[in-house]
Structures are given as C-alpha cells and as structure tokens.
Specification:
It contains 16 helices and 18 strands. It is an alpha/beta fold. The longest helix is centred in the middle third of the chain and has 27 residues. Bound molecules: 6-O-phosphono-beta-D-glucopyranose (BG6).
C-alpha cells in the first residue's frame, strides 16, 4: 500500500475548516493555452464570476510557453468563448473578468520560470489583493505533473499546509498514473512536496449535480435504503455511452489509454462507489471518502482467466451514426494500426461485502455507441410468487430505479400496474422526476462546482490517494491479463451499435439484458 497521509490520526488536519466564502486567491493555470483551459476552465471561472461566487479579490494567471502579453491571453480566451455561453451582458461583464487575467510565460522544467512566477504572484498580492493564497491547476499532460510540482516546491511556492492562510492547493487532472505502479510513483512524488490536504485530484463526474444526487437520493430519503441490498436488488447496470469517436487529436492519447483507463478507472468506479457505499457518518470529505474506499477494496481480485470471463473489450469498426458514415477505430488519426486498445468495455463484477455479496454489477462504456447517455439502473428482484400475468421484454421484474446522470437528468421508478379490464394482466408504468421540470435553473457545470470547492478548501468531491490506489489495483489486474500472450483479442462492433455480441453474452448469465437507452 502507499502511505495514507490522509489518515485521520492527525488532529490538525481535521481541524482545517471549510471556508464559508472563498478567500482571495490567485489561480495559476498550467496549460493555459490548452484545450481544457479554453473549453472548460475559463468558461467555468467566467460563470462563477458572473454569479458573484468568486472572492472579491482574485486573479487568474495563465502560465505557458508562448510569448504572450496579458492582452494576448485575454483576446485568446475571449475568441474561444462559446457564443452559447455569452448571454446578453457579456460585453459588460467580460471586461471586468478579463482585467483579472494575467499571462506568465514559462516552461515546465526551468527553475527560472518558477522564480518569475513567484515574483508575479507576489506582485498580484499587492495589485489584486490575492493575499498569498494560490491554486495551481495542472491542466497539462501527465508527464509534467511531477516536474511542475517539484519546481513549485523548490521555488518556495507551496505554503506549509498547517497554516490556515496563506494556503496553496494543487489541482491535478486525470490521468493520475497509467497503472498501479506509476500511480504509486506519482503519489510518492506528490507527497514529497505536498500534504494530502493540499491535493485536489479531479474526477469531473463527481462535480455533476446528478452524481451528487446519488447520495441525496440514497441517504436523504428513508424509502430506498432498506431495499438497497442483496436481499432486494437483482443487479445493477451502469452505462456511460458516448456517440463521439476520436475528435481532434485525441486518437494518440486515447490509444494509450482505452476505455478501461479513460472511463472505467475513474468515472465509472466513482459511480459504482456512490451506488454501493455504506452511509457515511456525516458528509465531511473524509467520512464520504472512507466509505468509497471500502467499496474499492471490495472489488474482485481476478486471475487472468476470470478477467477473460468477466470483462469484454472491443473496438468499433466503420459504421454509421445518425445517418453519417464514420470510420473504424483503427482508421482514426493517431491510433496504431496494430492497436489492441478497446474503445468499449463491458464487465460483470460482484463486490465482496455483506450488503452486496452475489449481486452482479454490470458496467459498460464505449465510444461510437448510438447516443450519449449515462445512467445507473437498479433492478429489483421479482416478487416471491407471481400472481399476475406480467408482460414485458427481457427483464423479469418491472421494478427498476433508473438514475439518469445525463442527458435528460432525472430519475424514474418503474413498477407494474394492472391493465384496465377483466384480465389480471400487468404492464410496466413509470414515475418520473426531471431536473429541468422540478428545479427552475439548469444544474451548474461540473467544473464550476469543483473550482469553487477548491477555493473553499473542500476536497469531498475529489479523489483521495487511497481511492486512486485501490481503483488502479483492480484495473491493473485487467490490464495485466490483457497483456498475456493468450489473451483474447478485442472484439468488434459496428460504430452506431450498442457494442459486441460478447457483451450481451456476458450478462445473459444473469438472465439480464442491457437496457436500451
Ligand atoms: C473524459 C474522457 O474524462 O470524459 C473523455 O477523457 C470522455 O473520453 C469524457 O468523452 C466524458 O465526459 P462527459 O462529461 O461528457 O460525460
């Protein structure tokens, strides 16, 4: 095991309060000229500014290799700001926001650049009232995580974590390692400079309102929890389906990751944790994360043969989506012609816990599926005796609770109702909750919430080092099995279909079928 610097034995750490309102701070974006900063981070910060959620004094420092001025940075961000995000008052609000944007030129491996950054931050403390508080956001390729953190430490830019203010926090984007060993190495590198309390590992799924609502639904109500266990639940399906293939230059990164690292190791295992965890004693960061870790510890320890039996990997061949012809995975730019990477993974697993022993958790995710849809479906057992004639397709009982993470955010409960008439026939009916209808405003974007939480010093929605470790332990056992010479090659599925036949066969064992979304 890696060291667990998070552990609760340190009373000082527990005493660190969550701020009520964000303190003045400087937010340094490493990778300021990259895609994530343009598409997600800057729009999210702008929206926070617009809502008045940011502290009264703040600055955003774009750090990058270009030879840009502050004005260049402002123009670039403004240009790439999506029209759909602008709103009527953009012309009025943007200049206020832009006045907080500053560019700091520098590379990731030059100590002088970091000294210059330090000087710039001190200047901002004076000119922008940022009070020495700093967020360093690593929106960069993973090979730069370690050198940047190392240089931050050496340049004296990381404050002692025990001081309430000024504080330093470092946000790390995924991927955190590419297997168990590299993740542990990265954890060790990080912990040489930072205390766990200063590290915010992003999994943007945790910032989604609908994902946070899983705990609200389970633990803010009394009706679900008594039946949320092996006595009542027949199976749980978690689907993260995407229509997109390899947009832009994504192929090369994706080919080294595949669906298993890109989606399962992080987003899907986090969804699994929230569905399967025990109630935490309270909603504090460590109480919630302690329970999630226990789920990850209860994941199976498979032999290679068990991996072949329970995990299907596949990649799309040429096909069509919504009438558009699209190329196969191997034809995508950046993908190796002899690649064995899966753009689709389906797996069947059981958790070794008192609550869930024997209940199949059926996970599937893939690119180039017919549509974008993420949902969790809890399939309840059939009644002990069947008094009525039940008609429906595939699944035997109509009792299903479906949490729609996206799109059409909401939840629905299906149950059987008698079809009017003299016969005793039942039909499935549905009670539906929709965010759009129940709450006037659309849910905030995930990055908005997560950035605000970093400013508030609340790590609840970020993954702790032992979560990452346990997730990689499980995923690495699958990767190792696939690296064996006799591992079955990836199956194929036509783009625009719901995956390979092998995925259907996988869950037929449980008398189940994949839900049609
Ligand atoms: C990212 C993956 O983490 O999540 C992408 O790298 C994927 O491959 C994306 O497309 C999906 O996120 P969302 O929020 O669109 O479901």
């Amino acid at each position: 095991m890696v060291e667990s610097p998070h552990d609760d034995s340190n009373p000082l750490r527990q005493a660190l309060p969550r701020a009520q309102a964000p303190h003045p701070c400087a937010i340094v974006l490493f990778g300021a000229t990259g895609d994530l900063a343009h598409r997600k981070l800057v729009p999210a910060l702008y929206r926070l500014h617009h809502r008045g959620d940011l502290p009264s004094e703040y600055a955003i420092v774009g750090y990058g290799r270009r030879d840009w001025s502050d004005d260049d940075l402002r123009r670039e961000y403004e240009k790439s700001f999506p029209d759909s995000e602008k709103g009527d008052d953009f012309a009025q609000i943007w200049p206020q926001f832009a006045s907080r944007l500053v560019f700091a030129p520098g590379t990731f491996d030059d100590p002088k650049s970091f000294e210059a950054l330090g000087a710039k931050l001190e200047e901002l403390d004076r000119t922008h009232g940022t009070r020495g508080n700093r967020i360093f956001y690593l929106a960069v390729a993973p090979e730069f995580f370690e050198p940047i953190i190392d240089h931050l430490g050496k340049a004296g830019l990381i404050h002692d974590w025990r001081r309430e203010e000024p504080w330093s926090r470092v946000v790390i984007e995924k991927p955190f390692g590419h297997d168990l060993e590299s993740a542990r190495e990265l954890s060790r590198d990080v912990s040489r400079v930072l205390d766990e309390a200063q590290v915010y590992r992003i999994d943007h799924y945790l910032g989604k309102e609908t994902v946070q609502n899983i705990l609200a639904l389970r633990f803010g109500n009394s009706i679900f929890e008594p039946i949320w266990n092996r006595r009542h639940v027949a199976s749980v399906q978690i689907t993260v389906a995407e229509e997109v293939g390899m947009p832009g230059n994504r192929g090369a990164y994706y080919d080294s990751a595949g669906a298993i690292r890109d989606m399962v190791q992080n987003h899907m295992l986090q969804l699994l944790c929230l569905v399967a965890m025990e109630p935490p004693v309270d909603l504090s960061a460590d109480a919630v994360r302690n329970e999630k870790v226990k789920v990850l510890q209860a994941l199976p320890r498979w032999t290679p043969e068990e991996v072949y039996e329970n995990v299907v990997r596949a990649r799309y061949s040429a096909g069509s989506i919504e009438g558009r012809d699209v190329p196969g995975y191997l034809q995508e730019k950046g993908v190796a012609p002899d690649s064995t990477t899966g753009s689709f993974v389906a797996m069947r697993l059981t958790l070794n816990t008192w609550r869930w022993a024997g209940v199949p958790f059926l996970l599937r995710t893939g690119k180039r599926l017919p549509r974008r849809a993420t949902e969790i479906a809890i399939q309840f057992k059939q009644p002990p005796t069947q008094l009525f004639d039940v008609e429906h397709d595939g699944l035997k009982s109509g009792n299903q609770l479906v949490l729609r993470i996206q799109p059409n955010e909401g939840a629905s409960l299906t149950f059987e109702a008698k079809i009017p008439g003299s016969r005793r026939r039942l039909q499935e009916v549905r009670m539906d909750f929709r965010y759009g209808t129940a709450f006037a405003a659309p849910p905030p974007e995930a990055y908005q919430r997560l950035l605000l939480d970093v400013m508030l010093g609340d790590p609840t929605l970020f993954t702790r080092t032992d979560e990452v470790d346990n997730a990689w332990r499980f995923i690495t056992s699958i990767l190792d099995a696939w690296a064996e010479p006799d591992a079955p090659p990836p199956a194929d599925y036509p783009a625009g279909s719901w995956g390979p036949r092998a995925a259907d066969d996988l869950i037929r064992r449980d008398d189940a079928v994949w839900r049609r979304l």
